[in-house]
Design goal:
The chain is mainly β and 234 residues long. It has helices spanning 2-23, 108-111; strands spanning 32-34, 37-41, 49-51, 63-68, 73-79, 89-100, 112-114, 122-125, 130-138, 141-152, 159-167, 172-185, 206-210, 213-217, 227-231. The longest helix has 22 residues, at 2-23.
Length: 234
């Protein structure tokens, strides 16, 4: 009898605390639950959302991972996990995108903006991929609305980026990709300064251009020579 009473008591307490939790103001939490994922608005976290492909290349001594962010900037990395239990990382290119009214304008702060510098980006993680809703404010062009999706590739190393832009005036859509390095540290940690993109990441890199595509290769002096292909589809 005492066991039955104890069981009912535990059930009552569990239901009580569950009801209280559901009644809390969800706005107090940094990430909000949404269908098939969770969402955050205005976060400044970078490279905090690893996206994994398939196990197709698990036999290789290095493992590729896509580091997405709460802002629309993406970095590919390779881990030497078979050689080092701690696993150091090499960069395999950083992707960023932005808008500009006039290319090369001296008023860059008024007429251009990188998407990852936006303060009110809505970032949503959806079961293995990222979705971003961006509404930028440029002093000379206040109405630019964009949507960006980042998906890891399954059978190959890399990631896909899909961007849709809606604006009431002509704008230049600008993208940047590059920076293939040697193994330089643990890039998942925010305290690692090397994780942030720097022009020095591109030292020794070579670029071969093609029609709507390019091939970026790392320096021949590195332990591993990373090679990343870029394709642009409209």
């Amino acid at each position: 009898m005492k066991g039955i009473i104890a069981a009912f008591t535990l059930l009552f307490l569990a239901n009580f605390f569950y009801t209280q939790l559901r009644a809390q103001d969800l706005s107090k939490f940094q990430y909000q639950p949404v269908e098939n994922g969770f969402r955050r608005v205005g976060s400044r976290y970078l490279f905090n959302r690893p996206l994994y492909g398939s196990h197709e290349n698990d036999t290789l001594p290095e493992r590729y991972v896509t580091f997405a962010s709460d802002q629309p900037i993406v970095m590919g990395i390779i881990s030497d996990w078979r050689k080092n239990e701690a696993g150091t990382h090499a960069k395999c290119g950083t992707f960023m995108a932005g808008f500009s009214i006039a290319v090369g304008s001296p008023n860059e702060s008024r007429e251009s903006q990188w998407l990852h510098e936006n303060d009110n980006t809505v970032a949503t993680y959806r079961n293995g991929w990222m979705e971003y809703e961006i509404c930028t404010y440029i002093a000379a062009q206040p109405c630019v609305i964009g949507k960006m999706e980042v998906l890891p590739m399954m059978n190959d190393d890399g990631f896909l980026v899909n961007v849709k832009v809606n604006t009431n005036q002509r704008m230049n859509f600008v993208t940047g990709f590059g920076g293939i390095t040697d193994f330089i540290g643990r890039l998942e940690y925010p305290t690692t300064k090397e994780r942030n993109f720097s022009p020095t990441d591109c030292f020794g890199n070579t670029v071969v251009w093609g029609k709507n595509r390019a091939l970026v290769s790392g320096s021949a002096n590195e332990v591993i020579i990373g090679v990343m292909g870029i394709s642009i589809c409209r």
